[in-house]
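Q: Sequence in, structure out?
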Amino acid sequence: LIYDRYDIWVVDPFGNNQPVNLTVTGRQNKITYRYIQTDPLEEFIDFSSTLLLSGFDNTTKGYGYYSINGLNNYSNSLVSNSEKSVNSSKSLVNSSEKSASNSSIDASPEVLYRGDFMLNTPIKAKESDAYIFTRETFEEFPDILFTNNNFKKITPITKANAQQNNFIWGTTRLIKWTSHDGVELEGVLYLPENFDPSLKYPMMVNFYDRNSHNLFSHRVPEAHRSTIDYHTYNSSGYVIFNPDVVYKDGYPGESAFNAVMPGITKVIEMGFVNPKKIGAQGHSWGGYQVAYLATRTNLFAAIESGAPVVNMFSAYGGIRWGSGLNRSFQYEHQQSRIGATPWESPLRYIENSPLFTMDKVTTPILIMHNDKDGHVPWYQGIEYFIALKRLRKPVWMLNYSGEVHWPQKLKNKADFQIRMKQFFDHYLKDTPAPKWMDSGISAIELEAQTGY
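A: Exactly. Output:
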């Protein structure tokens, strides 16, 4: 059994039978089917049994459980044809000619349970057909559910987060738009619980790569190490937009611009966002992308860029401190997607490096980069900070001494979240600037105040 984007295919390794689409309508209905292994000790897939599948609806972003059977006859035909072809190449040809009639599967996925929610991998009882699993949405906590009749009746086992009822939570909404280069894209809007479309809300844009498949993912409030806490901002009257980004090799920065900016325009056209009060935040790859956007647009009122690469020449020549790997591989072939060395395509390295167009930045920037970062060299954050300071741009840099790619100590994560919120509130909600932004706090004074 092999996967394509949507369907599961039965493939004869002997080549005597044509591949057959087991799930039949996955691509047609844009449902991604995957096999669920219910027995952790299973060593092979028994075609005589009923198989349990998961299904992700790429249109609604909902999930489901499905079953499928009827593979036994096809399995027998594979064995029969393979035995005939062991010692005869002529038999192989004959079997291939007959493969159309031998390769039919009288089965299609049967819906057991599906809807507008996210499902995890169910756990089956060892000696019965009972399952436990979780179901979740942005608003629904993933409590443990029980079924013993093929998901026809669902019984909750836990109620683990009743305290959520005491808090302003929020809702999600899927939106669609077309990128500047003609690609149909999707993204998720996170709206305050008491959302009023007649008001003008400040908006945070937060993204990394793709997120629309997480429309129904439940988020727990916490002091995140590298991203804004969605509930903190929703409950403070912010709209949050997380757009999908697709990339063109050689142009990672421009790809982000082409995807994100028309998405923001789409949200502004809905009428409930103040276009002068939009911020952006990203970390690592997301930090690079928001740093690039700051060189291409003055739309944003403020940007926080965490552990970003701003100079692809100097970053290319470094190593990853944790593994010792040189960094060239990720710039040539992986996430940065340049597709060439600096000697083959120097202009691509310049065009995709925010450092070389930093003079065009008008947006206040907050940088967070730590001195033990093994993923993105700390000197990238320093280059960023020094460049903006030299150009007399409004910029601040946070460094949590001894921390890695992101703060790991709770006190540092909490401090980062507080300062980032103060930064965005100042520029997006017109609150007074805290002392650390205004006049600054010396390291000696900070130690006296906090003890660290």
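Confidence is low (pLDDT under 50) at residues 85-103.
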